[in-house]
């Protein structure tokens, strides 16, 4: 298990590296000023972090109340992911459209691109993080 301190380091590095890539990359990709994409990146990351905390707490409480356990099946994990992303899209699309003065459709397409970036980035970041900061005591059991 990772320590609290390690989890804080992980979260801070994850966001710092992501924003260092996202802000200039999205400014070039979407033809927006660097400052505008900086605001979008920082506000989106903050909203996503807060939403993650609130959503996961609520989801686990709902599971406990409805099923008597927070144990998740594969179907529940898929539902969890889809509901989390849907909530995030609902919060971010209007903010992106308003701030960049673009239509909702353009904001949706931009948000989809952002989600795709973070999916790939998160996967690669975590592989790199585990290599640079291995868990003390060895690897997790096979299939964990």
Question: Would you mind describing this structure in some detail?
Answer:
It is built from 4 helices and no strands. It has helices at residues 4-30, 34-67, 74-100, 104-132.
Question: Largest sheet, if any?
Answer: none
Task: Please state the average pLDDT score.
Answer: 90
Shape: globular
| Stretches with pLDDT under 50, minimum 5 residues | none
Order of helices and strands: HHHH
- How many angstroms separate the termini? 12 Å
Radius of gyration: 17 Å
Number-wise, the strands total 0
Query: Which percent band covers the strand fraction?
Result: under 5%
| Helical amount | over 70%
List keywords for this structure.
about 140 residues; mainly alpha; 4 helices; about 80% helix; globular
Summarize this entry quickly:
This protein is mainly alpha-helical and 144 residues long. It is 81% helix and 0% strand. Helix 1 packs across helix 2, helix 2 packs antiparallel against helix 3 and helix 3 packs across helix 4.
Question: Secondary-structure map with pairings?
Answer:
Elements: H1 4-30, H2 34-67, H3 74-100, H4 104-132
Helix pairs in contact: 1-2, 1-4, 2-3, 3-4
């Amino acid at each position: 298990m990772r320590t609290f301190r390690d989890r804080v380091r992980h979260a801070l590095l994850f966001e710092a590296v992501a924003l260092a890539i996202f802000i200039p990359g999205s400014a070039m990709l979407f033809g927006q000023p660097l400052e505008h994409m900086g605001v979008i990146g920082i506000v989106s990351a903050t909203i996503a972090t807060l939403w993650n905390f609130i959503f996961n707490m609520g989801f686990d409480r709902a599971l406990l109340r409805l099923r008597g356990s927070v144990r998740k099946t594969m179907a529940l994990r898929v539902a969890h992911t889809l509901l989390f992303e849907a909530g995030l899209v609902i919060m971010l699309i209007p903010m992106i459209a308003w701030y960049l003065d673009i239509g909702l459709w353009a904001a949706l397409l931009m948000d989809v691109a952002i989600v795709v970036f973070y999916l790939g980035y998160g996967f690669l970041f975590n592989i790199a993080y585990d290599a640079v900061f291995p868990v003390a005591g060895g690897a997790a059991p096979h299939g964990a």
